[in-house]
Amino acid sequence: MARLVDTHAHLNAPDFAGDLEKVLARARQAGVAAMLDVGTGIESSRRSISLSLKYPQIKAAVGFHPHDAAGVTSSDFEQLALLAENPRVVAIGETGLDFYRLLSPPPVQEQIFRQHLQLAVKLDKPVIIHTREALPQTFRIIKEEPLSARRGVMHCFNGDRRWAQAFLRKGFYLSLAGPVTYPRSTLQELVKTIPLDRLLLETDCPYLAPQPFRGKRNEPAYIAETYRQVARIRGLKVEALAAIIWDNACRLFGMP
Ligand SMILES: [Zn+2]
Ligand SMILES: [Zn+2]
Fold it and tell me: So what's the pLDDT on residue 1?
């Protein structure tokens, strides 16, 4: 069976509090051998680290989601920086800009995003970038700030080919989630243009379940659908694609 990795999950979310053991068992049965659990604030980042200490197949990432940037104090960020030093933490994030829901004012989102990039440089860890309705602004900031040599990943990427190429040229990986399985998704054309050695796959669970489970709570086991779809589009066997994505995740995050 193919050995799959889910490079972006929120198993720390309350959605999984009741049945996490079952969720992890189903992931194992589906061949998901490694998961990167992503924090979105201090509490979820702490939980991400504790999950990674309890389960060897889980690694952690710590950050403040752009939605919550407005509430982040300097002492919050200091706490996060301490959490980020934990060796189970393989990435900084998720961070970035979300101008779609605008839950925090753009200048504050930009400031907190810059702080994450600076922390990544200091700790020599990759960043996980969330960007929605903010591609030009996100790109401007990664041009202005010093970047970690480890660069990072544009998670749940849904920009067009031009933006994909711009972030690839900057050294970033692009990660696709469940929407690539939706009928008529423009991501099906985009995925043909991403070099295989820069491609990652993720669930972003509990959000964005792939096609057969669309609308339900997403979970790592469902990533098998995303692998099948991308393998079909790229004309690869699932096992071959899985080996490539596994190597990419290892290179970027040092997983497993
Ligand atoms: Zn996100
Ligand atoms: Zn996420």
Answer: 81
